Each structure stands twice: as structure tokens, then as C-alpha cells.
Amino acid sequence: MNLDELYQEVILDHYKRPRGAGLREPYEGESHQVNPTCGDEITLRVHVDGDKIADVSYENVGCSISKASASVLYELVNGSTVDDALARLAEFTELMNSKGQGEGDEETLEDAVAFAGVSKYPMRVKCALLGWMAFKDALVRAEATSGRTDA
Amino acid sequence: MEAVTKLDVEAVRADFPILKRMIGDRPVAYLDSAATSQKPVQVVEAMRRFTEHSNANISRSVHTLGAEATEAYEGARARVAAFIGAPSADEVVFTKNSTEAINLLAYAFQNAALDPHADPRLRLAPGDEIVVTEMEHHANLIPWQQLARRTGAVLKWIGITDHGRLDLESVPEVITERTKLVSFTHVANLLGTVNPTSQITARAREVGALVGLDASQSVPHIPVNVAELGVDFIAFTGHKMLGPTGIGVLWAKADLLDAMPPFLTGGSMIKTVTMEQTTFAEAPAKFEAGTPPIAEAVGLAAAVDYLDSLGMENVRAHEKELAGYMLERLETVDGLTVIGPRVPIGRSATVSFTLEGVHPHDVGQVLDAEAVAVRVGHHCAKPTCDRFGVNATTRASAYVYNTHEEIDRLVEALGRVRKVFS
Ligand SMILES: Cc1ncc(COP(=O)(O)O)c(C=O)c1O
């Protein structure tokens, strides 16, 4: 296998210098996700303000792929609209399920396109999606508490 | 370090075609035998010969193939019994794997708890105790934990010292007059610890508890003689001892098997059946409902023949040597911490470690790029991970076919890991 393809500079950079890490208040939804095969964990909070994601904060233990992915997630969705965030979630999930075929749209996914190589490694796709699953879940919870139903 | 072992590793390796498998441009250095071992051609060939020549269901047909299949299956049972020093082949129950063997036992207890006429040794009442250790594979933890929950029994455990050994000093407190069962791992799959058994078995006897071993990681690697161990049962699994997947073994003393209610019921385990009731066959048939893994039993017998031809003492000596070399070399890697005993005494050639600042998943991935196969994760021993404050480890495990050179490749590849993540 080609290691460089998996461990792109961008990924290693996010891993070493995670953006937006740490748990913050306020938040409306929180989710805890565990990858049962490796024990990786993330707790992620979402603060929604109107139709905006006002903050995404998280604490995680895990491999470079799962940690970098959470950091990239933060950059992409923090400050965006809920609808845009959901669109990124769908795009990223599709990229991860592409079995090495997808490239991802750099316009919308930005640094997250670096994960395209990960989609070739089924054992690692779960790592890359862990934070995103937590985001999806936390958002659902946030909307349940704030009564928003249209997402 | 130059201990003379009688194992001709090059000759052994020639029997394992998969060791020539190229990953990228290098042959695989397979250091994951604690998860599953590779199979020699002798095992594959025995199963093929059986399937092509003698395949039939057992104990059901009078035709020639049926008779041959029955003979092969029962012959395998006798072969396995002899390998572990069991006084009778009837004490060997074939299961799907270790997990099923342990569940078979746990469900015997559970079924006995519902039957006022069951053997008192098997009847758990609220407040009775089941004892395991903190270094169990989930397979020898969860069945007992769940049994305790369902019966009101209390699950207790023997802890682990910082050196990765059982805290034997606590044994007299943990195993008490209320203890009815002690089930502990003979060789720990994450830590590599080989547990001394005599103190625990003696204490179990003293309080009248049944005692047995999860021997999944011992039977493949060291001589195991159930009579010498003086236990009531052991469980092990074919695929970790050069045999096929799909077959495991519960050995238990005849009087215990007699007393145990069956776990699975159905065909081939009965004496008489009416619409209202059934009388069960004697053990081992009582515990082998349905068509068993016949070709797999043949394969397991061939694996046992293979191990015997090497000599289990030689296997042990070879692995002790590799364990020593692995520990010594791993100590030279910057930022590496061995989780488990750090000396090759009372330990197997299974070594778990963490690498500072690098997650085991990433370690495993880079090692794979170097064609070095190890296991990463919690190794189905989460409480052990918790005990050492880690989420996961990287685990390298050696067996009869591994060489010093492969360990060198492991250590070299770990250097590459450090570079990628520095
Ligand atoms: C100590 C120990 N017990 C039990 C098992 C379970 O074996 P199996 O998965 O074959 O049932 C394993 C291996 O995975 C093990 O290492």
C-alpha cells in the first residue's frame, strides 16, 4: 500500500494540531460515540443558534485518522448553516463509502478531500466517520431540544 | 540468548505456504498468531482428503462413508484427548470455538439453577460467587458476568499487578467459602502472562469450588496436561493451534459432564424422545446437538499430530527464545512501553505495547505497509486495557514458524512509524 496516500500531510497536520478541540458551553446537543473494534471515542457537542452551527466542540481519543477527521469537521461546519453542515456530512459520508473511487469536491469539502485515500481501507473508514456520526447525532439531539423539525 | 532449540524453523516454514505471500514487495511477517494461527499443508491436506474421500454425516448411516466419517470424527476426539492428557476421550466435547465451550458451561450452570434436582455443585444461589481475573478475554468474562446477573451470584476477580502478573496475594480473600466456580485464563491474550495455576486451584479445592482454565492461549503454545493441572475443565480453540476455524474443545471431568444439563438440544444428543419428554445421551454426545464440524475435527487432529511431531517442549523453548528476543529488541524502540511482563519468564511470545504519541491503529497501518502483520485494538480484553490506562495496544505474537529476522523487521518498521508521526 501507499502510505503517503493514506497519511496525507493535511491529515497529519490536523492530527498534530487539532482545530477547535475541547468541550465548550453552551450546547444544545451532545453525542458520545465509540468504535467498538478499537475503543476509539469521541464526545461532541453542537451549539445551534438560529439556523447556524454556532459551535462544535469535542474531546476524543483515537488514531490519526479519527482525530484529524474531527478537526476537519470542525473547520467545515463551525459557523456554517445547519443545511450546509448536513450537506457536508452527506458529501463526506459518500466520499468515505466510495471504496477509493471518489475524489471529493475541494470547493465544498476543502481539507476533507485528503480523506479520499482512506476510503480504500475499509478498516479505517469507521475511524474517519466517527466524529461525523457524533455530529449527526448531536445535531438531532440539539434539534429535539430546540424544537426544530425541518432538518 | 543462543538457546539451542530443536525446532527446525526453516523446515516448519516450508509447511506453511501462506508465509510466502507477498504484501507489496515483501513476504508477510505474520506476527498475529494469538488472533489466529496459520495452517500447515498437513492440516489442509487431511481435511481435503476427508472431504474428497470419506465425507458423510456421522453416527447416522450404516454405509461405508458414514462409518469412515464416524471413525474419523471419533478418532479426532481420541487424538485431542491424548494430546491434553485426558483420561478418556468421552471427556472431550467438540464445540465451535472457545467462546462456545465456555458458554456451554455457563449455560449448564444457568439451566441447573432452574432445576431443584441439579447437582449442588452447579446450583448457584444469590450471594454465591464466581471468580475470574482482571486479565480475561471477554470470552471468559461475559458469560460469567451474565450468569451472575441472571442468578444473583456475585462476580469477583483477581486483580493484576503493575508487572502484569496476577495478584496472587489476594487469592485467599477473593476465593471464599461462597465461591462455587473459578474460571481463569491460563495464558493471557493481551499481556502474554503465563499464570501459575497451583495456588488458585488449591484454594478453589479448599473451598469446594469447581475450577477451570481458559486454555485458548496455552494449549497451542505449551505442554498442557489436564491431569497434572488438577482442574475440572479447560476450553480451547482449534484455529489458534494450527487447526481450522469452526472447532473448539471443552474438556471436563467425566463426573462434571455427567452432572451438567445440556446447553443446545436437538438431534444426536438423545437416548429416547417422545412428544412429552427426552432422555439425553451420555457425554460427550449430550453436548453435541446437531451435525458437528466433522472435517474441522479431522483438521484439528492433524494439527495436534503436527504439534506432537514438533514436540510441545520444543515449541515452548522456541517461543521462549523469541519472547526474550522480542522483549529485548522492543526495549530499544524510543517511546515504546511494554504492557505486561517485561522478562521472558512466565510469559508467552505475545507482546503488547504502546508507542508514545502514536495510536495503535496507525502503528498497525504503517507496519502493514512494511508487510508486518500485528493486531491492534483492545484484543477483546477491555478491562485489562482499563487496568493499564490504555484504550488499545499493538500486539505482536509469535508461533512455531516465526524467526528472529521477522522480529527485526517489526522493530525496523516501528522506526518507520516513529518517522511518519514524529
Ligand atoms: C484467551 C482467549 N480466550 C478465548 C478466546 C476466544 O477464542 P474463539 O474466538 O476461538 O472462541 C481467545 C481468542 O480470541 C483468547 O485469546
TrEMBL record, chain A:
Listed CDD domains: IscU_like
InterPro entries: NIF_FeS_clus_asmbl_NifU_N
GO MF terms held by the record: iron ion binding; iron-sulfur cluster binding
Pfam families, A to Z: NifU_N
Recorded superkingdom: Bacteria
GO terms, biological process: iron-sulfur cluster assembly
Residue span, NIF system FeS cluster assembly NifU N-terminal domain: 7-127
SUPFAM superfamilies according to UniProt: SufE/NifU (SSF82649)
Family recorded in the similarity comment: Belongs to the NifU family.
PANTHER family from the UniProt entry: IRON-SULFUR CLUSTER ASSEMBLY ENZYME NIFU HOMOLOG
Protein name: Nitrogen fixation protein NifU
Source organism (scientific name): Glycomyces sambucus
TrEMBL record, chain B:
Cofactor: pyridoxal 5'-phosphate
UniProt-recorded name of the protein: Cysteine desulfurase
Top-level EC class as recorded in UniProt: transferase
Gene Ontology molecular-function annotations: cysteine desulfurase activity; pyridoxal phosphate binding
PANTHER family: CYSTEINE DESULFURASE (PTHR43586), CYSTEINE DESULFURASE 1, CHLOROPLASTIC (PTHR43586:SF8)
Enzyme Commission designation: 2.8.1.7
Claim: Amino-acid biosynthesis is one of the keywords in the record: no
Listed NCBIfam families: sufS
A single GO BP: cysteine metabolic process
Gene3D superfamilies according to UniProt: Aspartate Aminotransferase, domain 1, Type I PLP-dependent aspartate aminotransferase-like (Major domain)
Aminotransferase class V domain span: 30-410
Organism per entry: Glycomyces sambucus
Stored InterPro entries: Aminotrans_V_dom, Aminotrans_V_PyrdxlP_BS, Cys_dSase_SufS, PyrdxlP-dep_Trfase, PyrdxlP-dep_Trfase_major, PyrdxlP-dep_Trfase_small
Domain of life: Bacteria
Keyword Oxidoreductase on entry: no
Catalyzed chemical reaction(s): (sulfur carrier)-H + L-cysteine = (sulfur carrier)-SH + L-alanine
Entry function: Catalyzes the removal of elemental sulfur and selenium atoms from L-cysteine, L-cystine, L-selenocysteine, and L-selenocystine to produce L-alanine.
Protein family per UniProt: Belongs to the class-V pyridoxal-phosphate-dependent aminotransferase family. Csd subfamily.
Keyword terms of this UniProt record: Pyridoxal phosphate, Transferase
